[in-house]
Write a structure and sequence with these properties.
Layout lengths: L7 E5 L6 H17 L4 E3 L2 H5 L3 H9 L2 E5 L5 H8 L4 E6 H7 L13 H21 L12
Parallel strand pairs: 1-2, 1-3, 3-4
Length: 144
């Protein structure tokens, strides 16, 4: 008997006007559009803030991966506030600490180092998704 994989919702920080917020969004796009398109579904943080019914239903019915740009952890807090379960939490600053040579700059358009940091973070998240099989069965891990 095989278990059907469950999609994960990915909720990145909004961080408008901040380079680290832009990195979170770029990492989420890379993850959802290129690395794990069949296993993930992007949910905009703004939709949770506004109480969008479809977005709130998605976070309640699927385990979530949150990607935060600062220590306030707004993405994680809003998923939980809307009745969702955070399976994995990532902070872009942790990725930056591990890759200090990839200093992000820019807001509307990231510099090459910022784009690379987003890619590195997306790849790290993809590895964690592979480790838990995107089933949500084993919630937690090193960033939860």
């Amino acid at each position: 008997m095989s278990l059907k994989k469950q999609s994960m919702v990915v909720v990145p920080c909004s961080g408008i006007g901040k380079s680290l917020g832009t990195v979170t969004r770029e990492a989420a796009y890379e993850l959802c559009d290129n690395l794990r398109p069949s296993d993930t579904r992007l949910v905009a943080l703004s939709k949770l803030v506004l109480g969008d019914a479809e977005a709130c239903d998605l976070v309640r019915s699927s385990p979530a991966v949150t990607i935060d740009g600062c220590k306030q952890m707004c993405a994680s807090k809003l998923v939980k506030h809307n009745g969702g379960k955070v399976a994995l939490e990532f902070a872009v600053f942790d990725a930056f600490r591990s890759h200090k040579d990839l200093k992000p700059e820019g807001i509307a358009e990231l510099n090459p180092e910022g784009k690379q940091l987003a890619r590195v973070l997306a790849e790290e998240i993809a590895e964690h998704l592979d480790a838990i099989g995107c089933s949500g069965a084993e919630l937690g891990g090193p960033h939860a």
